[in-house]
Write a structure and sequence with these properties.
- The protein has 91 residues and is mostly helical.
- The protein folds into two domains: 7-40; 41-91, High-Potential Iron-Sulfur Protein, Chain A.
- The chain has one helix at 9-38, and strands at 65-66, 70-71.
- It has a two-stranded antiparallel sheet.
- The longest helix is centred in the N-terminal third of the chain and has 30 residues, at 9-38.
- Bound molecules: iron/sulfur cluster.
- Residues 49, 59, 62, 64-65, 71, 73-74, 78, 82-84, 86-87 line the site of iron/sulfur cluster.
């Protein structure tokens, strides 16, 4: 009399697939956390932000400006007539 296997190949394959999916989901979560950290904005102090212009340069003519009071790369509230060291003139 032959012994019957406790799991057929279909069940084993499904379990293997689920394990692989769980591993991929975990990796995606780790990578997602990395992206969040990498996309964090810089502190105003780190870029020498000031809420007044520098010569004729102001935030509202910078390519990083995000009206009404934001910046794509610098954290916190940003004044339209402010400035910082990473200013890039809008084209
Ligand atoms: S100068 Fe540009 S980069 Fe700097 S805070 Fe203003 S908008 Fe952001």
């Amino acid at each position: 009399m032959s012994e019957k296997p406790t799991h057929d190949s279909t069940e084993v394959s499904r379990r293997k697939l689920l394990r692989t999916a769980a591993t991929a989901a975990g990796a995606a979560a780790v990578l997602g956390a990395g992206v969040t950290t990498a996309s964090a904005k810089m502190a105003q102090k780190a870029v020498g932000y000031q809420d007044t212009p520098k010569d004729d340069k102001t935030c509202d003519i910078c390519s990083n400006w995000r009206p009404p009071n934001g910046c794509a790369t610098v954290d916190g509230e940003i004044a339209a007539k402010g400035w910082c060291r990473i200013f890039v003139l809008k084209r």
